[in-house]
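Input record (Table S2, row 354):
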Amino acid sequence: MLNEIRKDYLLDRWVVIATHRGRRPTDFIKTEEVSPIDRNVRVRASCPFCPGNERKTPPAELVYLKSKNGIVKDRDVNGSRHKDWLIRTVPNLFSAFSPPENGDTFESGRAVGHHEVLIESPNHNEHPAVAREAQLIHVINGYIDRLLALSAKSYTKYVSIFRNYGLDAGASLSHAHSQIIATPMIPTIPRLELNASEKYYDSHGTCVFCDTIAEERRGPRFIWENEAFAVFAPWASVHPFEFWMIPKAHEASLLDMKPTTIKKFAEALKVCLGGLKSLLNDPPYNYGFHIAPSKEIKEFYHWHLEVYPRLTLWAGFEKSTGTYINVMKPEQAAHNLKDIIAQKSGKDQERTLS
Ligand SMILES: [Zn+2]
Ligand SMILES: [Zn+2]
Ligand SMILES: [Zn+2]
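Output record (zinc ion complex):
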């Protein structure tokens, strides 16, 4: 039987859905891999992101501190470091992009920008799948605060917010953290998505993402939803068990989120990444936001989070052609994720009732 080849909703990106081997979720579980959750006390003593080790990082650009009247936001100044923080954002020590020095211009072609680490919790292992929802709300607010601050720089054209989880997904430190990179150009994939969605808007008069949500909510790739977010496996998933999380209301940027939506997003993150963890024995993954890069873009772009489990390797064909082979049918992946999430929420309900 011939495999199917699918094109992305927007990008000129093709994926071969190669499911002839009939893979099950258990085929993707690597038993020999050490779980990204780190139980070693010695590692934590030397972890630069753990409380007490604040001096091992550069001064924080932003810290959330507890106070009687809610959250106080501050930064580290004059060589001091705040203690008892809820989240902190620090410049990345191995920065891919750096702020401009005197005389630097964008045209000089240097990698002008910012590269920051958002430390998501004082607790080493508080990753989204197991985090307290209140803590995830701080993390999302931290994304929004840094997105706002970095977008305001004259040389910033795009802000990428992403998360690597597990050694195989590129996380060199196991403490729960995300990264934020402000770039002097719009990177290729967001740019192609922006161009294609603008074209769609011009010819259809609607947002391609709003139309896609309406379609996918009724279809075989639907995974989960709450009042504010829909989650589904994309039609042309590049990765096995890839899923996208997208606000149901039309919002171009994270900056458009209201506090009630932020709470719903925290829930969505926890439920769906929790489902992935249960289904595939805590696999490594990457996630990345796609966000409209300017306030002027309102109608045609719609922000979303793309989650890529790291279960297979890209080899010669993928690297040399930009065409992908996915050995897990998105419909099957969605079905498995949907089931495990439903099972888990059933168990949670039993626990609250008893
Ligand atoms: Zn730590
Ligand atoms: Zn939309
Ligand atoms: Zn996207």
